[in-house]
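Is this the right way to post structure tokens for a design question? Let me know if I should format differently. Anyway, here goes:
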């Protein structure tokens, strides 16, 4: 293992009981494609030109066959918890739950708490979030998983980033299932939110008492003080942040959105607002947004059509990751304090369910700088009174980064995709040392 750089200025202590972890998702690491049903991502990646390097996740990190080695890496890292996702297409296949049964047992034997996410974008290929019925099918999936794992799993996550799955997968077409519906994709958001609420009910019925969602959020900065830029940034904030947080936390949609949603929205909102025990936030970077320019733009690998009522611009003056995402740790403090201001007592304890960055190399000092800065920024939010209970690095392993294929490496552990050899990076050593310091 490459040794981590010594930190001169120790990271302040987090509250006792703070949960330190790492995250992955099924489609991005599992492989073993023949032992599950197809997902929308299998269909999507089979279409030429969808994934930058032409790759698929058929093998990925071969985690299904190598999970013991990966659990040993988790144990050596010293995390309290491991966030992974349960593949719905695998659960539907004969014996598919056996894998998660073994994984959970191995994690517990290694002293690592399992934290499954019940949907992380790999929808069974015969299902469609445009259909309301998919929410009901999801509740059945959740009931099945909880019946099998609920005797050992206590902490659950319903959905991962319904915002990205809606926006990238159904509005802009750069993720599976590749639809370009723009605002006609809004029912996809509503049905996922409904699925979340139904899942909370299903988990409660199975006896669970530690349930959250992993929503992606970030500050939206207007490109200037100009009223048109401020209005565009406000609109983007509604789409990314409020559209997914308001229904869960307040039981209502932001003004003007509810009437665009299908079905009996008022009744559905009661389901969507089933109380959660904590609120998961995936944070990577802020977004700078200005008034529409009447022109198409390519931003972070995503083509955004001219008719959108905003224009995403570069956040200038900060270093960027290999993905081109700006590195702005203080925006995490800003996000969390703003959330507390916006939602007040309706905001339950927060867990950072993802935070991380794409960089090449084993001696990944840029990743250490990124993580160190964000953990400190998180501590400042705690000092400012935000009730934060946990932090999960994305990701344990380099993995299949969706439309980017294997070209973006987010792992604390390097994976050689030809040999499947795992090599801990310098950032793995840094995180390990941090966890020890926090416990001493
Ligand atoms: O890899 C993804 C993950 O699946 C969801 N959140 C963002 C990560 C980095 O893009």
């Amino acid at each position: 293992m490459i040794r981590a750089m010594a930190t001169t200025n120790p990271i302040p202590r987090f509250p006792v009981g703070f949960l330190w972890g790492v995250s992955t998702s099924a489609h991005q690491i599992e492989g073993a494609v023949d032992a599950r049903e197809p997902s929308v991502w299998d269909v999507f990646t089979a279409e030429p030109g969808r994934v930058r390097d032409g790759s698929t996740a058929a093998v990925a990190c071969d985690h299904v066959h190598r999970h013991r080695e990966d659990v040993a890496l988790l144990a050596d890292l010293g995390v309290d918890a491991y966030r992974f996702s349960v593949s719905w297409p695998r659960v539907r296949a004969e014996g598919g739950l056996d894998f998660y049964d073994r994984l959970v047992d191995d994690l517990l034997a290694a002293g690592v708490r399992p934290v499954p996410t019940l949907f992380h974008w790999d929808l069974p290929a015969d299902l469609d979030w445009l259909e309301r019925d998919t929410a009901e099918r999801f509740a059945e999936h959740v009931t099945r998983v909880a019946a099998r794992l609920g005797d050992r799993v206590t902490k659950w996550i319903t959905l991962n980033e319904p915002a990205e799955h809606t926006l990238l997968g159904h509005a802009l077409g750069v993720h599976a299932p590749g639809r370009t519906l723009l605002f006609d994709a809004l029912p996809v958001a509503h049905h996922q939110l409904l699925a979340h609420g139904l899942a909370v009910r299903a988990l409660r019925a199975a006896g669970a008492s530690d349930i959250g969602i992993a929503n992606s959020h970030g500050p939206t900065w207007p490109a200037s003080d100009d009223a048109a830029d401020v209005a565009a940034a406000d609109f983007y904030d509604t789409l990314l942040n409020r559209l997914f947080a308001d229904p869960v936390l307040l039981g209502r949609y932001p003004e003007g959105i509810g009437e665009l949603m299908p079905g009996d929205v008022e009744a559905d909102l009661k389901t969507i607002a089933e109380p959660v025990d904590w609120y998961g936030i995936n944070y990577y970077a802020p977004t700078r947004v200005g008034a529409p320019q009447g022109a198409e733009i390519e931003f972070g690998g995503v083509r955004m059509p001219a008719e959108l009522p905003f224009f995403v611009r570069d956040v200038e003056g900060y270093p960027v990751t290999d993905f081109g995402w700006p590195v702005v740790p203080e925006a995490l403090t800003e996000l969390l304090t703003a959330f507390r201001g916006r939602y007040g007592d309706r905001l339950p304890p927060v867990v950072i369910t993802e935070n991380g960055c794409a960089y090449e190399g084993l001696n990944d000092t840029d990743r250490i700088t990124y993580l160190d800065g964000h953990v400190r920024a998180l501590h400042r939010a705690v000092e400012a009174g935000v009730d934060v209970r946990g932090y999960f690095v994305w990701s344990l392993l380099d993995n299949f980064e969706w439309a980017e294929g294997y070209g973006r490496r987010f792992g604390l552990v390097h994976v050689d995709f030809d040999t499947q050899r795992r090599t801990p990076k310098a950032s793995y050593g840094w995180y390990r040392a941090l966890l020890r310091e926090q416990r001493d």
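Format looks fine. Someone answered above. Worth noting: Residues 227-250 form the longest helix (24 residues). The pocket of 5-hydroxymethyl-3,4-dihydroxypiperidine is lined by residues 25, 28, 161, 282, 354, 394, 401, 410 (CB under 6 Å).
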